[in-house]
Amino acid sequence: MKIVVVGTGYVGLVTGTCFAEVGIDVTCIDIDKKKIDNLKEGILPIYEPGLEEMVQRNVEADRLHFSTSLADSIAGCDVAFIAVGTPPGENGSADLKYVLGVASEIGQHMNHYGVVVTKSTVPVGTAEKVKASVQASITKRNLNIEFDVASNPEFLKEGAAIDDFLKPDRIVIGVETKRAEEIMKKLYKPFLLNGHPIIFMDIPSAEMTKYAANAMLATKISFMNDIANLCEIMGADVNLVRKGIGSDVRIGNKFIYPGIGYGGSCFPKDVKALIKTADEHGYNMRILNAVEEVNDNQKSVLFDKLMKHFKGQIKGKTFALWGLSFKPKTDDMREAPSLVIIEKLLAAGANVKAYDPVAMHEAKKTLGEQITYCKNPNAALIDTDGLLVATEWPEFRSPDFDVMGKLMKNKVIFDGRNIYEVEEMKERGFDYYCIGIKTV
Fold it and tell me: Of 98, 203, 286, 362, which residue is least crowded by CB atoms under 10 Å?
């Protein structure tokens, strides 16, 4: 089979590379010439464990190609994936101009039957718009080319995207015709050999499935953060509560770790888009509105603890920040809680020294030189008035606390991810604050 994937961001690049890995001929398209030139040289626009090696391997095997020209790549193509961005508009709705622009261009250049698949996260009803856009371009050419549309939402976790694609929990595909279903089944056959389920459904249901999945996970996070805040007030230990409820198979132990809020490219955007979609149809998503409110507030919890500890007097003080990306194993800074913390610290007149294993180059794009970027965790601690842990990178979990105490002016830690033990911190002479446990 031959496919094209339009868009070489997180979803498009992982999708194209993983299809190439199982022997499919793939061309990834992007209008950004510099990005394509870099990809041809093995320079990736994102950090994802294992992806760089997989890209290089499939380029060398002549299965994975990169181009700026959809016109040159669409001929002879069986399936065209649209994997471009759907950024939120000012009102929270998903902006479909890039998706529909690609659909129009596909219609301008396709020369035989193919399946046009939305891989981007799009609101219910988008496939109909994609279909109309493709058809309009074909009609302008005075041609009669048959095609189908399909919806194939992605369920990739940043930091584990390759495993998620190659060993999926499920593959969801929305189709309108048996012909499209057979082609998509053939395309995904290599991923079904180990029993991973493929679920075919109508297109609106497939589009809704993606939003519903992310909204449910975001809900679990906000629910646990709300419980954590109450635990702290009441003197309960949220870590024990989490273990107690997580052992119930109806609840499960995933996405119930308390922290300082969710971020990234998916949850914030998709929750907003689903709320907006409901508003447009006269329905109030009461639970999701609360999920979003809790999450926004949670990003300030660590700063609030810091201000209380220092009695509001932090002007001129310097704080270390460990972790910038919204989660480990990614350099993604979109909607990262660290950005809220930094903004509040700087606004209060404090200085920030930060370290992150992979995200500092991305942070500089947003923050510039407002903060100091350090070469390792300990360098960030020198002469600081406290440490804030914003991302639970593995290398932060077992530091040398004796060395840390000697480097810091004030032995105080504000742990936004609950990676240290309360009693141990007390024994080592640290003032220690975390989420959902009353420590002082």
Answer: 286
